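Re: the 256-residue chain
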Amino acid sequence: MTYVNPTSSSPAVGQERTEERTPSPPEGMERDRGRGLLYLLPLVLLALTAWTPRAQADSQPLKQQLEDAVQAALPWKGATVEVGKIRVVGKMPAGDYRLELDERRLRRRVRARLVSSESARGAWVQAPVTIEVPVLVADADIDADAAVGSMVRVEPKTLDGLPHGFVTDTGELDHKIARRRIKAGQVITASLLEEPVAVERNQIVTILVRRGAVKITDRGVALQSGKRGDTVRVRSASSNAVVNAIARSNALVEVP
């Protein structure tokens, strides 16, 4: 006895199973499609080769050129330069080019023009830049009117955060005193410094006169107070004459 499952999808006796199939494209069309893909593949590979490796190859030398140009434009010895990701506006020159740096923007960003003999338009490049400058900072608290020269150290600081008039050369501290109290670690600026008073009013001073190889000295009294380099009036003790003299150092004035 044969058992027949009523839910079976098997065909009834005497019927043939038919399957629906997607018609295959003609053989010639399949060949044409394959040829088209083969023709496109070299073009895609060529585009990738021309774009990606060129960008990678050009970025490093251009970065070094920008850093060298910024370094040469900086007035501070020992400054370091680090250029970030470069953005090119326009078409990169295909051959040799000249880099013209825009020196007006050198705190946060660097901008330069690439000029080529083959193209009058050229291209612009810009990138973030970090510049560190070795500046003088207070090694300890410095009281007002105290000499500054022996109480500083050199410390690299980012240019973008430095105050106006920062000092990098210890020679600028010669004969200088603190105008007001300076805190330890504070960047030394020109506004924090001043010349000490070289001559006080009513102070006994030495008057120096130079005439060629001859030097003449006299004693006198300062009628004015003045810092080094200031012109003050002094009275000669020997002649009682009042002359203008330049304050040179403590208790020394020179008649020009």
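Residues 1-16, 44-58 have pLDDT under 50 and may be disordered.
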